[in-house]
Amino acid sequence: MRVTVLGAGTMGHGIAQVSAMAGHEVVLRDLEEELVSDGINAIRTNLEGGVERDKVSREEMTATLQRISGETDLETAIDGSDLVVEAVPEKLDLKKSVLSEAEEFLDESAVLATNTSSLSVTDLASTLERPGQFVGLHFFNPVHIMPLVEVIIAERTTAKTRKFATDYVDSIEKTPVVVRDAPGFASSRLGVALSVEAIRMVEEGVASPRDIDNAMELGYNHPMGPLELTDVVGLDVRLDILEYLREELGERFRPPQLLKRKVRAGKEGKKSGEGFYVWEDGEPIGMSGEWSEQ
């Protein structure tokens, strides 16, 4: 299978990596050569880490990188692909624009997919000429580690497209969970509900971020607490999802003021170096704000 990934950021290069590791030929496309190079370099770094931990052989790493090519021209990137996965930032208008443009170059039998954690796949399909060949594929970060992919079925997604999508997810050795297109799907709706309550608890002074996270990790066997996970996902991403879910589902998803203040201050989590925790070299080294001395 030939797979094109539109967007070489965190999710895009992750999707490209797991597709190439599964034996698919992959084209990673972004607007600028530097962005494409950064994405491919991130894949190389991930693979080198896998080699160091004996999770990936040197031969597997070499073969994976050989299956990935970079491209900035959209038509060239899409030409001949069986699957095109859009992985641009979680902005409705941006995604619609990219998807509509991509569809112009799509082969007749090819499938177009969006990687979204909360946006309506039916809405994204509304401007497409072939909505039956469109599906949601919600990957989780980090893509090369997380085993789940939500397959989101829009109102006009065909049974053939659904099978193609689940077969693809199986081929990259992930587990597909098929859900109907609804606000937040299954995972984001439940995950955000937990994280927003944890943020409110910090806001009210109930406990520190570390103690709240420890409670969920040690008491409920979560691999990562909701506040550290929010830092990893990105506070700005959480805020966007909450604002969308509030609009669709009501006030129970109202974003806490603490979250808004942190995002306004540029404290977006791991990627910015500070969120609910302070981050250094990809690891949390302490808590942020009033909890920093505890």
TrEMBL record:
State the source organism's domain of life.
Answer: Archaea
InterPro entries in alphabetical order: 3-OHacyl-CoA_DH, 3-OHacyl-CoA_DH_NAD-bd, 3HC_DH_C, 6-PGluconate_DH-like_C_sf, 6PGD_dom2, NAD(P)-bd_dom_sf
Q: Does the keyword Oxidoreductase apply?
A: yes
Q: Does the keyword Oxidoreductase apply?
A: yes
Q: Domain 3-hydroxyacyl-CoA dehydrogenase C-terminal spans what residues?
A: 184-279
Instruction: Name the residues that bind NAD(+).
Output: 7-12, 30, 90, 95, 117, 141, 271
- Which residues belong to any copy of the 3-hydroxyacyl-CoA dehydrogenase NAD binding domain? 3-181
Q: Where is this site: Important for catalytic activity?
A: 138
A GO molecular function term, named singly, is: NAD+ binding
Keywords of the record, alphabetical order, are:
NAD, Oxidoreductase
Signal peptide segment: none
User: In Gene Ontology terms, what is a biological process of this protein?
Assistant: fatty acid metabolic process
**Protein name listed in UniProt:** 3-hydroxybutyryl-CoA dehydrogenase
Q: What species is given as this protein's source?
A: Halogranum amylolyticum
